[in-house]
Write a structure and sequence with these properties.
six-stranded mixed β-sheet; about 65% helix; 2 domains
Length: about 400
């Protein structure tokens, strides 16, 4: 059965369609069943002489395309299908019976060809099957002839509906896959922001603790108790930040495993004071100015503002340790604005922007804002604007100098 389904799947792929393989199995079984019933009808009435040749020929001609599909590796030749189906029906009509089921082969053929061809070709094929049915009606080959003609048209319509449904399902699957990729990229960005920030705070606190113990040691080798307390406080803060980062990483990993929606509160403007205080406690000098927005910002914009400030502080403490940082967040003439500046202590150069800057640019751009990250007169400047005017929106520029952040 697996081999059979693989063959069906390969044939559909060769025609450019992704139908489930059991679709073709149903068609094959349906064709075989209709031919079998039509032959039995004629055997019951009685077959003699040359009529045996007509019946045997109908069976061979009607099943030949389906057998060929299973044997040959080449792409199915669709024009053969109408010739085969109409030829089988014509041979069976040479042995007329009452209540003949043979015309149903025409309905099945119209449905099949319409399901695997474009609209124009489907109309041509369905018309050919309909003309064959009309010819049978004129020749008086079977009863309820005009009903069969209508069924042929309905079969073609059904085949096109199946094709359209397949296309919609494929589009839905592609969109679902794209959303999964975007969600994983978003979660990866969150993990990067959380880990980079937390590790920066941890390292700053560990450095502060080391310096307190190193410079607090007197000539006799005894460390001043106040310096010990300061070092312990820095280590406690580092431990808290580290545990919080681990919790955030575990939560992100669970989201990646379960594909569940984010159900935890995301940081926003109200959390900026705590963010800045964390860097200050770690020994970083931060000149912090904050003004609330005139109009409430969306949750996504508040999160983006928070991440831009977080990433900028992290980059500044990493690339310019000990240098003062100025952070200005508030409404401007062209939307809500974030400006973070710090002295360039140790210039570095990278051919491509770091993940942090790329993540910031992506966040701002997705919200229709603009971002500039560049060196300006000996200082590194991050300037993000949310809700910018259309002329400047969706414009994110990262200076090549000092861009490995």
């Amino acid at each position: 059965m697996g081999w059979l389904f693989d063959r069906y799947r390969a044939k559909f792929a060769a025609m450019g369609y992704n139908y489930p393989p059991y679709y073709m199995m149903v068609v094959d079984l349906g064709q075989a069943l209709i031919i079998a019933v039509a032959v039995i009808q004629r055997l019951v009435v009685g077959v003699s002489g040359w009529q045996w040749l007509a019946v045997i020929g109908a069976v061979c001609v009607g099943l030949a395309p389906h057998v060929a599909i299973l044997i040959w590796n080449s792409r199915p030749i669709l024009p053969v299908v109408p010739l085969s189906y109409i030829g089988a029906v014509a041979l069976l009509w040479l042995v007329p019976v009452h209540g003949d089921v043979a015309p149903l082969i025409l309905v099945l053929g119209a449905t099949i060809t319409a399901a695997v061809t474009g609209l124009r070709r489907a109309v041509v094929y369905v018309t050919v099957f309909a003309l064959a049915a009309v010819g049978g009606v004129i020749a008086g080959a079977f009863d309820q002839g005009w009903l069969i003609v209508l069924m042929v048209g309905f079969g073609g319509f059904t085949g096109q509906l199946l094709q359209q449904q397949l296309r919609l399902v494929e589009v839905e699957h592609r969109e679902h896959a794209r959303q999964q990729v975007l969600e994983r990229a978003r979660i990866a960005g969150e993990v990067h922001d959380v880990v980079a920030h937390s590790l920066s705070i941890v390292l700053l606190n560990v450095t502060a603790a080391r310096r307190a113990l190193e410079f607090g040691r007197g000539a006799d080798g005894v460390v001043d108790p106040d310096d010990v307390d300061e070092a312990l406080e820095a280590l406690r803060d580092a431990e808290t930040q580290g545990r919080g980062a681990m919790d955030d990483v575990r939560h992100a990993i669970e989201l990646l495993r379960s594909e569940a929606a984010v159900d935890t509160a995301q940081p926003g403007l109200d959390d900026l004071d705590v963010l800045v205080d964390g860097f200050r406690r770690a020994g970083t000098e931060v000149d912090w100015r904050f003004r609330p927005p005139v109009e409430p910002l969306s949750q996504a914009t508040e999160l983006a503002v928070y991440r831009v400030v977080q990433e900028s502080l992290t980059n500044a403490s990493k690339h310019a340790p000990g240098a003062p940082i100025t952070v200005d967040v508030g409404p401007g003439d062209d939307g809500y604005r974030v400006r973070v500046t710090n002295l360039v202590v140790v210039p570095t150069r990278s051919t491509t922007p770091g993940l942090g800057l790329v993540g910031m640019a992506s966040r701002v751009e997705n919200l229709g804002g603009s971002l500039r990250a560049r060196a300006d007169d000996g200082r590194w400047l991050v300037d993000a604007r949310f809700g910018a005017a259309p002329a400047t929106s969706s414009r994110c520029v990262i200076d090549e100098a000092l861009s490995g952040r």
